[in-house]
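Hi R.,

As promised on Friday, here is the backbone we talked about, encoded as structure tokens. Could you run it through your design pipeline when you get a chance and send me back a sequence?
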């Protein structure tokens, strides 16, 4: 299960989508552009309408992939169009689903489709109030840990589809699930570089639950809030310097300059000290190099899962040498926890980058956001 509470730095790991030609094997069906709004930021999937179905491709299912899985979504009662053998047929809208990442949960919630979830690995990670009600009522079965998912229990649920993710070409357990006759859909939202690109994957979920118009509406509002907040800091003359990350093992891990997190910091009017690096993943830097550049940073944003300055210093006393530590300007994303301890930032953050952006602006440019209260972030006491 892709849940980042166990490894906080992974949350940072990690534009219009060009319309692809109709997939081969769909005969002479006439095609048209997608019925959902044109994808403005997401690059990881495409949709093409034909007369009787939707043809969906996940163009980058994992880092470095040359191509991805294809699906034909056929309304119940309609004839399945001709298709290639490797195209997965899925009848829509689905009535039941098993998800494997907490980031999928808000997609269902915001599409008024929470009740479609019937199974999830380690349900304690789920923070959503709506979903927790269903879990507590026994309507969502706990399927065990991700790599050790109870496949026998999964089969007894008879889900219409399993929505999974993969970090490599080896699909592992997802391949086993598919061999059991259960359709598997790859959600690769985590690879999107633009924060709104990740949020736009609500349109991907909508294709399977039959809520395209609702997804358009939800996304437009998120986009509006993000763009409006970004505009508020566009003319601000000061750009406070920001450091991020913490030490893991022998190296300091932090987002690269083309990383999703770096984009959020830029849009919030920050001067991220490693913005010039070309990596869209993680940088691994020596403590000495980080200290040399960031000792006098104005803010330290994204200090993993620590809850206090004392706890942070207990992990490595050298953290106390940085100016943000001395001036108590360290912020982390632990403000909201679910009933079982799940981190809401790591569940809802992909869909609501507008809230993350507002938090960051409030932290570094408080005068721009008068009256706003931090949602995900909190200052380490």
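Update: got your reply. Pasting your designed sequence below so it's all in one thread:
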């Amino acid at each position: 299960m892709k849940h980042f509470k166990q490894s906080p730095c992974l949350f940072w790991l990690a534009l219009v989508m060009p319309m692809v030609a109709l997939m081969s094997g769909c005969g002479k069906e006439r095609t048209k552009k997608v019925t959902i709004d044109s994808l403005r930021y997401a690059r990881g999937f495409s949709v093409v309408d034909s007369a009787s179905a939707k043809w969906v491709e996940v163009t980058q299912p994992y880092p470095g992939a040359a191509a991805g899985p294809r699906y034909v979504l056929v309304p119940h009662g309609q004839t399945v169009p001709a298709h290639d053998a490797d195209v997965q047929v899925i009848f829509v809208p689905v009535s039941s689903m098993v998800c494997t990442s907490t980031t999928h949960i808000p997609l269902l919630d915001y599409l008024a489709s929470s009740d479609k979830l019937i199974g999830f690995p380690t349900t304690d990670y789920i923070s959503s109030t709506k979903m927790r009600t269903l879990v507590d009522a026994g309507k969502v079965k706990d399927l065990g840990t991700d790599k050790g998912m109870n496949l026998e229990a999964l089969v007894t649920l008879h889900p219409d589809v399993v929505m999974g993710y993969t970090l490599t070409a080896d699909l592992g357990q997802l391949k086993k699930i598919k061999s059991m006759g259960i359709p598997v859909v790859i959600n690769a939202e985590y690879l999107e570089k633009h924060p709104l690109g990740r949020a736009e994957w609500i349109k991907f979920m909508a294709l399977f639950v039959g809520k395209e118009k609702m997804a358009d509406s939800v996304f437009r509002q998120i986009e509006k809030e993000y763009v409006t907040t970004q505009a508020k800091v566009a003319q601000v003359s000061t750009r406070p310097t920001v450091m991020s990350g913490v030490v893991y093992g022998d190296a300091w891990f932090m987002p690269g300059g083309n990383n999703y997190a770096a984009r959020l910091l830029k849009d919030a009017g920050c001067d991220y000290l490693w913005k010039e690096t070309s990596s869209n993943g993680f940088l691994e830097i020596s403590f000495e190099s980080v200290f040399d550049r960031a000792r006098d940073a104005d803010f330290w944003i994204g200090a993993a899962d620590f809850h206090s300055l004392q706890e942070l210093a207990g992990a490595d006393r050298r953290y106390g040498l940085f100016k943000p530590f001395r001036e108590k300007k360290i912020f982390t994303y632990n403000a909201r926890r679910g009933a079982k301890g799940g981190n809401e930032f790591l569940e809802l953050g992909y869909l609501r980058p507008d809230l993350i952006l507002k938090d960051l602006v409030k932290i570094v440019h408080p005068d721009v956001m008068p009256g706003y209260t931090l949602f995900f972030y909190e200052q380490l006491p």
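One thing I noticed while checking it: The chain has a mean pLDDT of 90.

Thanks again,
M.
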